[in-house]
Amino acid sequence: MWIPVHIDENRPEPLYHQVEVQLRSLILSGQLAEGTLLPSIREFAADLRCSAITVRRVYQDLENEGLLRTRQGTGTFVAGIDQSARDEFRLERVVEAFERAVETGLQLQCSREEMERIWRDAYARKRAEADGDKGGQR
Amino acid sequence: MNRGLYGLEQAESDKAVVALRGAAVRHDGFALGPLDLSVPAGMVTAIVGPNGSGKSTLLRLLLGLAPCEGAAEVLGRHLSPDSDAELKERIGFVTELPHAYESHLTADEKARFASLWYPSWSWERYERLMHGFEADRTQKLGKLSKGMRRKAELAVAMAHDPELLLLDEPSSGLDPSAWKALLDELTRYMDRGDRTLIFATHITEEVRRLADYVLFMHRGRCLGLYEKDRLFEGWRVLAVQRADGTAGREDAARLLKQAPGVQGAQESGPGICRIESDAPEETEAYCLSAGYRILSSQRMELEEIMACLVRKGGCGKMNPLVIEKVFKQYGDKTAVNGLSFEVAQGGNLRAARRERRGQDDDDAHGARAHSP
Q1: How many CB pairs under 8 A join A and B?
Q2: Is A103 in the same domain as A118?
Q3: Range of the domain at B276
């Protein structure tokens, strides 16, 4: 199976870190369901054009975190993840996104009031767009 | 600069499938080694280096085809002139040039002969490989094109599922679809995790797609065995500029000398210096503190890294066997074109100008001769 992990060679983070972050996110967001059989270390390494050593390290790390499990002779599977871990991860990602936005705001000397107004407007606009889409589909 | 060593340590922590200690091959006009090298089992190691760097000789050494000095162990057995057939049964190989004496055979005839030799031979595997490579089985090997013959040779070499596969420029002459089939088959071959592949190549894309380790060869010497991903992570090329928008040749020379990790530097465009570093974070920090702006920071290609390694290791450091030869001819001090040579510890051959024997001379050539 092909896993949508994208390596950006010009980013300074080490390869294994890039692969690990993306694979963890695919699992915690539920995009890779429990029981999904992952590619073998060798196949995944060939897809990503990285070494088997890197993939082995990612699989080991995520296994230690309880996100993957390996069955001897069969392969590496996505483990069952409890809802609280998923929720935590979901919120963490939103918090990160907000933090980045606030950082940009502070760099550009936005006041708290300005940022709050931007947030309210953005929320209202996106909400309306989403509702509009649903309306259109009906 | 310690990254190479780090790679070696990593390699040695895995079980070694090849262990060389002071192994050397000498024949007319060419000297390989002495090499100290451990190649990890279960991994793919790509040997890269310019023509004549010793890649094929190294593979021949591992096959027991080139008589060598020193100690060489393959699959846990000492190589000796009368290396047993049992060891050879566990190895598969494709040499750089096909054997002329097989030219009158068809692929199937060669396979029939090989099947008698290898107890683990599988006709099913042979059929699958021949089919995958779209190889011709009816014409005599000598009548086939280079690429077509290659396909048949590869199928025969892999049909007994050897523990160790040695391939010398395996894709030479292959069309794109056969090349893809070969990469897929080699991935499948490695999949179980207990097989080892060592191959010599000039094709960067093969290294990127297949290799776990990269072994650099130059003039019969090994410039280092590196874990591939660490290698690509460890080297970067930076474009820097002074805050006032100028940067000239003097800047390049200064950065080469002073900034940590810099292995090459040149003025690459108006006001821009391009610097190659094997410690990019340190280099970046130094440049920023010295009043430069970093315009970009990118991965380096394998060829570029190799050029740096050659400059770094190859210029100051020469093959002791070659040095030995020079000294036999000229005595222990010699002068060529106004340069005098002297041998420093560890086989470092230093060229120093007679009149001004300073460290600056090496730097002036844009190559800093670090001893590893």
Answers
A1: 47
A2: yes
A3: 237-299
Rounded to the nearest angstrom, the minimum Cα separation between B78 and chain A is: 28
| pLDDT tens-digit series, residues B147-197 | 999 999 999 999 999 999 999 999 998 999 999 999 999 999 999 889 999
B222 plus B264 within the same structural domain: no
**Which residues contact residue B118 at a Cβ distance below 8 angstroms, ignoring those fewer than 6 apart?**
B89, B159, B160, B162
Distance CA B16, CA B39 (A): 5
Average pLDDT, integer, range A119-138: 81
Task: Kindly provide the ipTM of the predicted complex, given to two decimals.
Answer: 0.74
Continuous H helices in chain B = 3-13, 55-62, 85-89, 107-117, 123-133, 146-158, 176-190, 204-210, 228-234, 249-258, 280-289, 302-309, 320-330, 360-364
Q: Please name the amino acid found at residue A56.
A: R
A51 touches B at CB < 8 Å? yes
Q: Is residue B305 part of a domain?
A: no
B198 or B265, higher pLDDT: B198
Do B264 and B215 sit in the same domain of this protein?
no
Min Cα–Cα distance to chain A from B370, Å:
26
* Å between B307 CA and nearest CA of chain A: 20
> What's the rounded Cα separation, in Å, for the pair B372 and B363?
17
Could you say which of B191, B208, B227 has the minimum Cβ distance to residue A53? B227
Same domain flag for B225 and B280 = no
Q: Are residues B203 and B245 in the same domain?
A: no
- Decide if B47 contacts B198 (C-beta within 8 A): yes
| Radius of gyration over every alpha carbon of chain B, rounded to an integer in angstroms | 23
Residue A113 sits in which domain range? Answer: 83-137
Domain boundary among B184, B213, B231: B231
Q: Which of B9, B186, B212 should one mutate to test binding to chain A, selecting the residue with the greatest count of A CBs within 10 A? A: B212
Same structural domain, A63 and A95: no
Give B104's pLDDT tier (boundaries 50, 70, 90): very high
Asked if B292 and B330 sit in the same domain, the reply is no
For residues A75 and B17, give the distance between their C-alpha atoms in angstroms, rounded to a whole number: 25
**Segment 285-314 of chain B within 8 Å of chain A by CB:** 297-299
- Provide the whole-model pTM: 0.78
Q: Contact B44/A46, CB-based, under 8 Å?
A: no
pLDDT in tens, B206-243: 999 999 999 999 989 999 999 999 999 999 999 988 87
- A9/B239 Cα distance (integer angstroms): 17
Q: Chain B contact for A118, CB < 8 A?
A: no
What is d(CA B184, CA B177) in angstroms, rounded to the nearest whole number?
11
